[in-house]
Design brief:
With 194 residues, the chain is α+β, with helices and mostly antiparallel strands. It has helices at 2-19, 72-86, 107-115, 128-138, 181-193; strands spanning 29-30, 41-44, 49-51, 59-65, 93-99, 122-125, 142-147, 153-158, 161-165, 171-176. A hairpin with a 5-residue loop joins strand 7 and strand 8 (153-158). Helix 2 (72-86) packs across helix 5 (181-193). The longest helix has 18 residues, at 2-19. 31% of the residues are buried.
Length: 194
């Protein structure tokens, strides 16, 4: 009897160890599914209007940055390229990059910059009056900082979270700009499956 209990105990320990910790539902920080879906209309890098509501039914990976960004934005876009490659068979995903520097980020500048990373990324811009309500709706911070020792003249401090919008257009998950691409892929697949 004692030997049977010992064997059963060993089996339970081995089985528990084999299962390991459960994979999280999301690696990013989740937000509750409350409130209306987000919406806005800006101009993409081809000069066409981009209405967020027209892309319902897709998962949207949204980031606010700018073409002259020296560090955060290139890392984000490089990671996006890896995510896009991993999700190549799943077409219901959009990568949307909204400028925080509409003064310099013309449609041509955004097009040239994003083509370095992918032809499929959407770059959005507009007038100050058009972009400001979008920043406010998504809680995006931005501040122009003079940088006189460089030819670029200024940099823009800005929020660095990636936002994942579900098929209904609601922000469901936030991820840091330098999140591991595998984690981003995992969270996107979770939203695609829901």
């Amino acid at each position: 009897m004692r030997r049977t209990r010992s064997a059963l105990g060993v089996l339970l320990v081995v089985a528990a160890g084999a299962c390991g910790p459960a994979e999280p539902e999301f690696y990013g920080t989740t937000r509750p599914e409350v409130g209306p879906p987000e919406d806005f209309t800006l101009t993409d890098q081809y000069g066409k209007p981009y209405r967020l509501r027209d892309h319902r039914g897709k998962v949207v990976l949204l980031f606010f940055g700018y073409a002259h960004c020296p560090d955060v934005c290139p890392v984000t876009l490089s990671n996006w390229a890896r995510v896009e490659e991993a999700l190549a068979a799943q077409g219901d995903v959009e990568f949307v990059f909204v400028t925080v520097d509409p003064e310099r980020d013309t449609i041509e500048r955004l097009r040239d910059h994003l083509e370095i990373f992918s032809d499929n990324f959407r770059g959005l811009t507009g007038s100050e009056e058009q972009v400001t309500p979008v920043y406010e709706a998504f809680g995006i911070f931005r501040k122009k900082v003079p940088f006189s020792s460089s030819a670029i003249g200024y940099v823009v401090d800005h929020s660095t979270l990636m936002l994942l919008l579900d098929r209904e257009g609601k922000v469901r998950v936030t991820l840091p700009f330098d999140a591991d691409p595998d984690m981003i892929v995992h969270d996107i697949r979770r939203l695609l499956a829901s």
